[in-house]
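Handoff note, outgoing to incoming analyst
You'll be picking up this chain. Sequence as last confirmed:
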Amino acid sequence: MENLTEINKDVSIVAYYFRQGTKRLRCFPKRMEYDGKSVVFTEQGLRHPTRKGQRMIHVFDMTDGNADYRLEFDAEQLTWKLVYIADQSYGPLEPQYAAPKTSAAY
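Most recent structure output, in case you need it:
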């Protein structure tokens, strides 16, 4: 992944929940509200549960077709965190992450 920007901030997520037979409900993020932007996820990458201390954390790698996102869902506190954004095509979220502008003469 290129242009990795670490975020580590809580975000608002709209998620779908599905039941598979007698198994527990499975959660999938569909849309995210962050920094005044609405991001609609088009594909899911890896999804895996892990532990941070005593807490169960579900990690989701998602994409909107333009950028890749890593989200963490804290199953105990029921909160979502945006860990990072990679390969942003719409530009950096913060000015200090902006690439220097170059003028190419052809």
